[in-house]
UniProtKB/TrEMBL annotation:
Lineage top rank: taxon: Bacteria
Signal peptide: none
Molecular function GO terms recorded: DNA binding; DNA-binding transcription factor activity
GO BP terms in the entry: response to stress
PROSITE patterns per record: HTH_MARR_2
Keyword field: DNA-binding, Transcription, Transcription regulation
Source organism of this protein record: Streptomyces corchorusii
InterPro entries hit by this protein: HTH_MarR-typ (IPR000835), MarR/SlyA-like (IPR039422), WH-like_DNA-bd_sf (IPR036388), WH_DNA-bd_sf (IPR036390)
Residues annotated as domain HTH marR-type: 1-143
Protein name: MarR family transcriptional regulator
Amino acid sequence: MNKGSPGPTPGFLVWRLANKWRVAVDRAVAPLGLTHAQYVVVASLHGMQRAGERPSQRRLADHTGLEALYVSKLARVLESAGLIERTRDPRDPRAVQLALTEQGQAVTRQAIAVVQGLLQQLLEPLGGLDAPRTRAFTDELMALLDVPLAPSVPNDQSTRRRTP
């Protein structure tokens, strides 16, 4: 950005904040043997299990916003590490259900505490986790996340139909 530019766009700032958060969480949970993406899976699974749900990989993907194939890959790695178990859904043999193991629950509780401290630190400029500005910021983020995006349309001239 140069002196003549109007400043960063909202999209650029969201991208920068998302990257800052991802790097910070990666560093914070690394001592627990997790990456940020793995943390998203185990923390979401923890919350869903506490609510009495044993989600499928697809349901967890929908919940987290991650691609289903990526959740499947993460789940296999987490299963190998002894943190989750993957079982066939008795109602749908094609679906795989996920659950935290006892070790997974312990690691996840530690990771959640670490990330909560990090979140408090990040939100301090807004007054902290329970501040009115943070609640307003959260509401704004939810409004943006609730907007459906139109599917992308190829812009290549060769894919367009031409009429004589």
